[in-house]
Specification:
Blueprint: H1 3-28, H2 32-53, H3 63-88, H4 93-100, H5 103-115, H6 121-138
Helix pairs in contact: 1-3, 2-3, 4-6
């Protein structure tokens, strides 16, 4: 099996656990920012083993790479905050989680806009069906 596929499947499994955990923790506290703080601590704890395996070095490939990585972290953090509020304001996990899991369809749109991704009609149909499914879930 190709390494990228293994990592993709691991991501799928790990992220599928993330949403229910966020929902449970959000329901248990009054202040949603507490959830964000402890999630961030968990994120940092996951990075500790990397310190033993990865050398960052003193040279960076480019400021653009650093800026885009920072942007990715920023959008991930704000996305985490918005899903916390989705749960905190009454969103049910069985609705919110699949709805936000439609992000790949939007990701494909961004890839088309910024990188000129080529899509087949079958892929466009799949994206359209995913969006329709999300709209049906939200009703």
């Amino acid at each position: 099996m190709k390494p990228w596929l293994v990592f993709s499947m691991l991501t799928l499994v790990l992220w599928s656990v993330w949403s229910p955990l966020i929902s449970l923790s959000t329901q248990a506290v009054k202040n949603p920012f507490r959830v964000m703080v402890f999630e961030s601590i968990g994120f940092l704890a996951a990075l500790v083993p990397l310190l033993f395996f990865v050398r960052l070095g003193t040279e960076y490939p480019s400021q653009k790479a650093d800026a885009t990585a920072f942007g990715a972290g920023f959008f991930a953090a704000v996305g985490t905050l918005t899903i916390i509020y989705a749960f905190k304001t009454g969103g049910r996990p069985e609705i919110v989680a699949p709805l936000v899991s439609l992000s790949p369809a939007l990701t494909v749109f961004w890839m088309w806009c910024f990188f000129g991704a080529q899509l087949t009609y079958v892929q466009l149909l799949g994206i359209t069906l995913a969006i329709v499914a999300g709209l049906l879930l939200a009703r």
